[in-house]
Amino acid sequence: MTILSATSGARWRALALLSAIFGAGVSVYLLVEYTTGQPGLCLTGSGCDEVRASAFAYPLGIPMPLLGVAFYGAASWLAYRSLQGGKGLLLAAAVAGVTMSAVLTALEAFVIGAFCTWCLASAAASLLLLVGAVGVWLSPATDAAAGTSSRARQQRARAEEADRDGMRRLGLWGGTLTGALFAALLAAGALGAGPGAAETGDDLAPVGAPRLGTGAVMVVEFADFQCPACAVVGPMLQQMAEAGEMTLVFRHFPLTTIHANADASARAAEAAEGQGAFYAFAEALYARQGEWSNLGAAEADAYFAALAGELGLDVEAWRSAYRSAEVRSAVQADASAAMGLNLPGTPTIYIGGELYKGERSVAGFRAAIAGAAAAG
Predict the structure, then answer these.
(1) What class does CATH assign to 211-375?
(2) What is the mean pLDDT of residues 334-340?
(3) Taking the model in full, what pTM does it have?
(4) How far is 87 from 140, CA to CA, in rounded Å?
């Protein structure tokens, strides 16, 4: 038995409905990640984390995926209701969805500098929704038994009822399969998430790691200086530590497979630690990330040496440390610790020894720090 009848527009309605259901599934999946901090599958390296850490992820303080859930939920209803004459509303919604997706994709490309896998999937869903909506709009109301006779009206009624039943079945099956897919992805992400320090016995804050602040609660950040998300989060944590709200411990996690100068920048900051300037160097690296991220190896070396001079360091001593086996070993030890913890990417933050999964904002960090202090 076929799900849909052969009436004109049936397949376009099906495309619109399934696209909207898939988009809703993507949005729910992202919303769970945003609200729980659980890492998920990301085919664009650290792009998902970088987009989530950006200011554009929370317009007016609202998680962007929540808006996606509302939009695609409404679009699913309109795709179904297009049988009863809601074709214009469906088309208008689809145009609005594609427009917003285009704006968000442009922001990722030209402002954030990173792409989220699931944001791109949502954009693809909105595009398919538009294709289906245009098809529905251009299709005649029915092609079954044209005419005004009693028999023709009965045939049209049967065809329309068949379409309604088919759309209901299609929505049920599409929703079930989409829900199962994303539930499986969330379960896989939970199983693959890095364990806490107590589970691995790893020392999160070794004695030699750079520290800042004198707060009672210890916050450990694993970060990559070339990571755009780290450039947002790092300065927040540093300012809080300088204000005495907590003690910040930095651990290197250079993502060398996607960031060409990740290791060099980590060694540059680590070399500055020998002169007590680690966090000053880190602040400068984040602030000027766009200047050095795409430099060649030799140019990056020269840039970091010049930066050491600007910060008032002994450049020759810094250069010696930068090239030393000791600094390389310190960076590699942190990276090995991160891999041993099976960390999902950067930045990864532990507050009071617990993996932080909340919103990456000053308010979120403060709430977690207060909770750790109370439990402490």
Answers:
(1) alpha beta
(2) 88
(3) 0.59
(4) 11
3-state secondary structure (DSSP) of residue 60: helix
Asked if 240 contacts 323 with a C-beta cutoff of 8 angstroms, the reply is no
C-alpha 365: how far from chain center:
18
Q: Which amino acid is at 354?
A: E
Tell me which amino acid residue 204 is.
L
**What is the signed CA dihedral for 88, 91, 95, 98, rounded to 10 degrees?**
160
Helices vs. strands in the chain: H and E counts, helices first: 15, 5
All structural domains of the chain with their residue ranges: 10-192, 211-375
Tell me the pLDDT tens digit for each residue of 191-228: 555 444 444 434 788 888 999 999 999 999 999 999 98
Each residue of 238-262: pLDDT tens digit? 999 999 999 999 999 998 878 889 9
* 350 Rama class: left (phi>0) / alpha (psi -120 to 50) / beta: beta
CATH of domain 10-192: 1.20.1440.130
Tokens of 91: 């088309």
Picking from 240, 318, 242, the residue whose alpha carbon sits closest to that of residue 275 is: 318
